[in-house]
Design brief:
Elements (H helix, E strand, L loop, with lengths): L2 H10 L3 E7 L10 H15 L6 E8 L1 H12 L7 E5 L1 E2 L2 E4 L6 E9 H11 L3 H16 L8 H17 L15
Parallel strand pairs: 1-2, 2-6
Antiparallel strand pairs: 3-6, 4-5, 5-6
Length: 180
Amino acid sequence: MTDIMRRVNLNTMNKVKVVISNRQNDVKIPTGIRLLVRRCCNAALREENFTEDAEISVSFVNNEEIRSLNAKHRGKDAVTDVLSFPLGENGKYDRNEATGALLLGDIVISMPKAMEQAETFGHSLQREVGFLTVHSMFHLLGYDHEEGGLAAVRMREKEETVLAMLGIPRGASYVMNENE
C-alpha cells in the first residue's frame, strides 16, 4: 500500500471509541499499553475497510475473573488469555442510540496470563497484549478459528498483517517510548 493510499484510508476512518478498564491489580499496566490497544483496534478495522463509527470495550482482568467468564459463557472452567464477546452477527451490529456508533463488542484480557505468555514466548507484554487485542478484534468482526482449516488460516493471516502494519510482526518485541 502506498503512503498516499494509507493516508486516504486513515482519513476515511470514522470515529472509533475504545473504552478501556482495568479490573485487576495483579499486573501493573505499562505506560503506552492503552494507546497500543486503541491502535490495534483501529488497525484491525482499517484492514477490514470498516468505515462506520464503532465502539469497543476492552477490560483487563485477573485469572480468577477470566476463568469465571470462561466457565459461564463457554462452559470451560479454565483460565484463558482472552475472551471476545461480539455484539454483532453476519456484519449486523446494534447501534448506540446516542452516538450512532456500531457496538462491536467486548474484549476481556487476562493480564497475568498475558504476562505469563509473554515470558514463555520471549517477547514483551506489549507485544502479547497487541496480539490478543488484534485476535479478539477479528472475533468481534466475525472471524473464527475454532474449527481450524481455511477459516483459521485466514484469521491468522489477517492478524499478522495488522501486527506487521503496526510494526509488531511475529516474533518481534514491541516496547513503546514513554512519549507515545
